[in-house]
Amino acid sequence: MKIKGKRVLVTGADGFIGSHLVEELVRSGAKVRAVSQYNSQNNWGWLEDIPCLKEVEVISGDVRDFQFCQLATKKIDLVFHLAALIAIPFSYVAPSMYIDTNISGTLNMCLAAVENSCEKFIQTSTSEVYGSALYVPIDEKHPLQAQSPYSASKIGSDSIALSCYNSYDLPLSIARPFNTYGPRQSARAIIPTIITQILSGESKILLGDLSPTRDFNYVKDICEGFMKIASSDKLNGEVVNIASNSEISMRETLNLIKEIIGKDVEFVLDPVRIRPKKSEVNRLFGDNSKIKSLTNFKSLFTLKEGLEQTIEWFSKKENLSKYKVKVYNV
Ligand SMILES: NC(=O)c1ccc[n+]([C@@H]2O[C@H](COP(=O)([O-])OP(=O)(O)OC[C@H]3O[C@@H](n4cnc5c(N)ncnc54)[C@H](O)[C@@H]3O)[C@@H](O)[C@H]2O)c1
Q1: Would the CA dihedral through 154, 69, 54, 49 be positive or negative?
Q2: Domain at 7-179+218-242, CATH class
Q3: What is the pTM of this model?
């Protein structure tokens, strides 16, 4: 499918990855309808910050409501479904919300896309579904392990989406991004947590366990992966990792950020940030050979380059002021 000229719906467009994807789609010549979760302030989240907002149709609603999903998918060729609850710590506190939003919300979106004959549906998965690596690099055949309610809800949402491919012929691919970072990410994630604390002048940085490894990807590379998956006609019914094929520990990541910012800070273990032992995902290192062989995907940013861009964005006062550094963000 060629994206230029297509009518494209993005759910979760008010969020971190969704807002970058909307920008990329507009740049590629798509006609974008962006879903922002309804709130009474008519606040469109990170969409408010994108320079091309005038070229986007924004609609407010909620993927838990089927009627809304029916309306949202009307006259749409391609759906990128990103709306989800994604914080792992909050999924310990409110697991049922994750089932409603991530599983029922995905079912609603898929059924609405079937009803409105959408040409393609991209379901957004996550590397968290794999749990701690049983082997590396993690390919798409790696077993799924529900180490948190979040992971369980995404395993469920991928599964319900695949069932719509099998049962109703919904033309669907599952994009499975590994850890993503970049401008506009929530401070619940490790990289913005470190950057916002250092840039706010804290000398003691509060963090959780720094031994796990992650496969970090700059948000522009992840958006490129989404676009390649949507453009390919070889990936119907397929799950596809978007990964950099590397791993780095949280401790090494902290050191790299300290080096780029040029500030030596002390790391302090904050017990509230430690996950239950069996729930902590100790190792994530994704195999990207499938996306590379079936599309011409290539990561364009090294971790250092991506971190430099991210730090530059957070260094702007108007951006940093949107984060509550003194509050632990779950
Ligand atoms: N950030 C990562 O590292 C990462 C990695 C892999 C996969 N993902 C997946 O990518 C997607 C986007 O993640 P993100 O990091 O941009 O998170 P985010 O929290 O910034 O964005 C998610 C958006 O979904 C919206 N949303 C939540 N509930 C909704 C509802 N009921 N109805 C409508 N909208 C609703 C929120 O308003 C939010 O803006 C998610 O599906 C997530 O599971 C993220």
Answers
A1: negative
A2: alpha beta
A3: 0.98
